[in-house]
Design brief:
The protein has 461 residues and is α/β, with parallel strands linked by helices. The chain is 36% helix and 21% strand.
Length: 461
């Protein structure tokens, strides 16, 4: 579908982007009758951002009967990302096996003192963590959205004009033609999937949040060294590689991704990167850096994720978990849930929707399924990533087979793992013992009290 056909919606009088963004006019839900039917056309939606969140939203919208336009600034670009996805995502999102670079069955966790634990002893023969390159996954998901009927527009959305009346259109201003041509597009609904620095979020006044920075180098190793990473990934903990997160060495098709991240000391990110390269040096020396990448990562959900007929998903909404740093699955899931919610609310694109519809069909569903997971992982990060002593305790706990089984079941299948009460008690006692040995229990008493009351089973929400 050509972009020119999108201008059949009447465009309101032009306002400057500065005027639109400064006031953040809000179109709220009304207690009056439901929004009217749309005569002679389908509901029109713009999805800004063509990563897993945006592509999944666009696919759901287009397949459900909504006229859909998917914006992606740089279709060939690759986001710096570890690229790990859970097993359940392969089936749930029908990811073909040929996209998988590596099937990781050994996750080695290295403590600040270089104590090593093999985290993966409880995996069943068919279980693994899939490693992919983001440029490969993102391209596949965008193509599938196009096949479902979404129109892909290669362009940079610079601002969104928010309407002052309830059913007037949103107007997207964007640069097309290699960012040399200014264009406008009027739509009924906007889905912001444009990352941590979301322009859509800024346009609707969704509020700020703290963000981390992820820095990663792709390193091509000699064949004999690449063999070590055939089915193995590594996580390194310590103040030297990150004061509040972990560093990683994740295998890809013909190289490894070596990176780290931090929210507290962003200016020192290159020093942390040097440190992870030094600690992993015996296994990656002799390799050649083929790409250097950096990207902001959200630290928590935005204050507002729905406003008017605009919804935020993925990184734009802040859906990256603490402690594990997982974002791909939650991005794709939030995009699909949002798209399907809009389809339901609009009755297959036949009527207008409002903020109340988005809150009910998308936000309420999302929070009901995942808000507990995000809160608990936030607490776990505060308990175990605050000092090297706490990190030593975490690695010690990861050596326990029951901890491994519960964690992997929850991660791989995104469900509550069925625990054993006696084993849960033993795990709690072991956790207390590790924290006491590391002399950190007192500093985190309130957080640990919460965790003890909920057990580690909440990982699987």
């Amino acid at each position: 579908m050509a972009a020119q056909s999108t201008f059949s919606l009447p465009l309101p009088p032009t306002r400057s982007a500065a005027h639109s963004n400064s006031r953040h006019p809000r179109v709220t839900a009304s207690n009056s009758a439901k929004p009217p039917s749309i005569a002679g056309r389908k509901l029109r939606a713009a999805v800004v951002g063509g990563g897993p969140a945006g592509s999944s939203a666009a696919e759901a919208l287009a397949a459900g009967g909504v006229e859909t336009f998917l914006f992606e600034r740089a279709p060939s670009a690759a986001k710096p990302c570890g690229g790990a996805i859970p097993l359940c995502m392969l089936d749930e999102f029908q990811i073909p096996s040929h996209l998988i670079d590596r099937r990781v069955t050994r996750m080695r966790i290295v403590s600040p003192s270089n104590l090593v634990v093999d985290f993966g002893q409880t995996l069943l023969p068919h279980e693994f963590v899939a490693m992919l390159r983001r440029e490969v996954l993102d391209s596949f998901l965008r193509s599938r959205a196009e096949s479902a009927g979404a129109a892909l527009i290669s362009g940079l959305v610079t601002s969104v004009e928010v309407p002052s009346s309830r059913h007037a259109p949103y107007v997207l201003h964007y640069l097309a033609g290699g960012e040399s041509r200014r264009e406008r597009l009027a739509v009924d609904v906007v889905v912001g999937a444009d990352g941590a620095n979301s322009r859509v979020a800024k346009s609707i006044g969704a509020g700020d949040y703290s963000s981390a920075i992820a820095f990663q180098e792709r390193i091509r190793l000699p064949d004999h060294k690449m063999e070590y990473y055939e089915n193995c990934a590594e996580m390194y903990l310590g103040n030297d590689v990150s004061p509040d997160f972990y560093a990683w060495v994740f295998p890809k098709c013909d190289h490894v991704a070596v990176g780290t991240g931090t929210v507290r000391e962003k200016k020192d990110i290159r020093a942390y990167q040097r440190a992870i390269r030094e600690r992993a040096n015996p296994k990656i020396s002799g390799g050649k850096v083929i790409k250097v990448e950096a990207h902001p990562i959200p630290e928590h959900p935005r204050p507002a994720r729905v406003r008017g007929r605009v919804a935020l998903v993925g990184d734009a909404a802040g859906y990256v978990t603490k402690c594990s740093g997982e974002g791909i699955y939650f991005a794709a899931k939030s995009g699909r849930m949002c798209g399907e919610g809009i389809v339901r609310a609009s009755e297959g694109g036949e009527r207008m929707i409002d903020e109340g519809d988005l809150r009910r069909e998308y936000l309420k569903e999302w929070d009901g399924q995942y808000v507990a997971t995000f809160r608990v992982l936030d607490l776990l990060q505060r308990v175990f990533y605050g000092s090297n002593a706490a990190r030593e305790a975490l690695v010690e706990l990861c050596g326990d087979e029951y901890v491994q089984r519960m964690s992997f079941d929850s991660y791989l299948y995104k469900r509550l793992a069925e625990g054993n009460r006696w084993e849960d008690v033993k795990m709690l006692v072991n956790t207390v013992g590790s924290l006491m040995r590391c002399k950190i229990l007192g500093r985190n008493r309130e957080a640990f009290k919460f965790l003890g009351g909920h057990s580690f089973n909440v990982f699987g929400r």
